[in-house]
Amino acid sequence: MAEGDSPTVARRRVRIALREAREAAGYTQLEVAEEMEWSLSKVIRIENGDVSVAPNDLRPLLGFFRVDDRLRVAELVEAAKVARARQRRAWYQTPEYHEFLTDPLRKLIEFEAEAAVIHHYSVFHVPGLLQVPEYSTALMETWSEELEPGQIKYRLAARRQRHDVAVARAGSLRITALLDESVLRRPVGGPRVLIAQFEELLRLIWLGLLRVRVIRFDADVAMSYNAGFNVVFLGADGDLSSAVMYRETGVTDEILEDVAIGKVNATGPPPPGPVARHYDRYQKLWNAAAKEDDTIAFIERRIRELG
């Protein structure tokens, strides 16, 4: 286990190892539940990261999966202990946020608090983590017929909290945002709101927290318009074993991770998973986009045009 792992990172490490070991051994979740005399929902919740597995349960579970390397077992048992360490309940775990935020969004917020690097891709709007309250409010109003008032209230509050946490972590967190030009031209909230939003992007850049590139309309590159996504690295940038992806389309969202299914018995490396594919696509688009100095100049020009 990496030294200094937080409970969030340690729990993710254990659950991914268990899922890989189960699939490599060829067992279904139901077979695991029957062997361990657990409910099926407990196995699912452990693999989804909703609960942590007790160290005393982990040893026989690893034995059932035929994981017998002593060092590996010791590492996972230690990680399981860290994962169950008592933490002060986070703001997004309170009953109100639990009711009105989706499970994937609450997991994203948990990962953001531990992230080393976050990459945003958006073709529709400024990513939520980077939004000012006025922009968030104007954007959320477009979903007023699909979302309940409580959902709107707590999603707006959550965006402000996420933004503040990210700013407080400047120096230990790096964020990139890859935006289609339409994001900087779409009249969300009107000129005053857009100016405030663009000025905030510049402030985050000057803080050293954010790097932004825009894909101009005349860029000779194939765009992906199906959804915005975030790739979050809990470890080093590019280390896909530490990466999770959050993807949203309208009012639906999901958390995705790459798991090397069947890697023990595979005759070759497994095909890249969705996180690896999206990250590769992100890098190619980033390299094709306008450079950061040109993007800053474009944002400053948009502020002058709106003023």
Description:
With 307 residues, this protein is an alpha/beta fold. The chain folds into two domains: 7-83, 434 Repressor (Amino-terminal Domain), CATH 1.10.260; 91-306, Endonuclease, Chain A (2-Layer Sandwich). It is 50% helix and 12% strand. The protein has helices at 7-25, 29-36, 40-48, 55-64, 70-83, 95-100, 103-114, 133-141, 149-168, 191-206, 274-288, 292-306; strands spanning 117-122, 174-180, 210-215, 228-233, 243-249, 252-256. A six-stranded mixed sheet has the order 3-2-1-4-5-6, with helices on both faces. Helix 4 (55-64) packs antiparallel against helix 5, helix 8 runs antiparallel to helix 9 and helix 10 packs antiparallel against helix 12 (292-306). The protein starts with 6 loop residues before the first helix and ends with a helix. The relative contact order is 0.12.
Beta-strand proportion: 5-15%
Q: Which residues sit in consecutive blocks of at least 5 with pLDDT less than 50?
A: 261-265
In the sheet with the most strands, the strands line up as 3-2-1-4-5-6
- State the helix count: 12
CATH topology of the largest domain: Endonuclease, Chain A
Mean pLDDT: 88
The gross shape turns out to be elongated
- In CATH, what is the class of the largest domain? Alpha Beta
Please bin the fraction of helical residues.
40-55%
Give me the Rg, rounded. 21 Å
- Element order: H for helix, E for strand: HHHHHHHEHHEHEEEEHH
- Strand element count: 6
If classified by CATH, what would the architecture of the largest domain be? Answer: 2-Layer Sandwich
Strand pairing plus helix content: what structural class?
Answer: alpha/beta
Distance between the termini: 53 Å
The biggest sheet, with number of strands, parallel, antiparallel or mixed sense and barrel status, is:
6 strands, mixed
